[in-house]
Design brief:
globular, 3 helices, single chain, Aminopeptidase, 135 residues
């Protein structure tokens, strides 16, 4: 048996893994992916986020807003939709992680998140901040 490596996994392959995990852990709930996008008038993504609903938690993996559209409330609108989606799926907690050099910790704190812990050891002496919020 060979181990296959890819930096661009196929959606069907990822869905297969999620399906198998859900089958084996159904008594604890389910895991699934989500994404929200905001597009401009020509269909280009100007803001978006993605993550996972996993066993009562909604985790936002990535949140991005185009530089020209920052401070216009788009990040807030996206995270509001994330929280609403989490509640609709029975989540009682929302989590996110951000790198210290991104400067986003204060944004999440304004949304009601609190830091759970910080993990040191990343490149250029940066650290990862893990935050959570009850829903």
């Amino acid at each position: 048996m060979d181990i296959e490596f890819t930096t661009h996994p196929q959606t069907d392959d990822l869905d297969f893994l999620t399906k198998k995990i859900n089958e084996e852990t159904s008594e604890f709930g389910f895991a699934s992916s989500f994404a929200f996008f905001i597009r401009n008038h020509v269909g280009e993504i100007i803001a978006g986020c993605n993550g996972s609903v996993i066993f009562g938690n909604i985790y936002t993996d990535q949140l991005w807003v185009h530089f020209d559209h920052r401070r216009a409330g788009l990040g807030y609108k996206l995270m509001t939709r994330v929280h609403d989606y989490g509640r609709k799926n029975g989540c009682t907690m929302a989590t996110v992680a951000t790198m210290s050099f991104q400067g986003a910790e204060a944004f999440y704190e304004r949304l009601g998140y609190v830091a759970d812990f910080t993990r040191l050891g990343y490149t250029k002496e940066s650290h990862c901040i893990f935050l959570r919020q009850d829903l």
